[in-house]
Design goal:
By secondary structure, the chain is of the alpha/beta class.
Length: 191
Amino acid sequence: MNVVLIGMKHCGKSTIGKALAARWDCPFRDVDPMIEATHACDTGEQLSVREIFERHGEVHFHRTEGHVVCELYLNLDRPESRAVVALGGRTALNSTVCGLLRAIGPVVYLQVSPDVIFDRIKRSGIPPFLDADDPAGDFMALYHKRHPRYEELADLAVDVHGLDPDEAVDVLESRLDQYERAHEQLWSSGE
């Protein structure tokens, strides 16, 4: 089974995703570096996802992101496939690709307190898309806008607040096992 991790930037998608993939001995696919590589192949520019969005705009960014998710779908939509995919924070907002996500695997929303996420963001530098005069308020508005979308899209929401990567993977594996057993019962009962 593949797993697709969603959530806010700095919620732990890459760290927990890598740890889960290592435990499962399977590939880890991080969408952000794939977007950067696809953009570089298409344009010859080596830019970060933030720079791609800023320089080329939302339409170009979503188009590139869509190509990456379609490529993942084409490569991972097989019953025997096993991989862990970490989406960028914006990917769940890209309505053109959301339908493909569940075909890749269960979508898991990694939940962390918005205060903790904002502290992590501050440590790595306030991104330019947040209002410089009120980055905390702007981030909270963004969080409250995205949170319902993540919940709507997710098959599972897993609270990883305060957990180290190994503990988070333990919780995630347990929830995924429950999810898989419940769906096997539904499939076997013909519902």
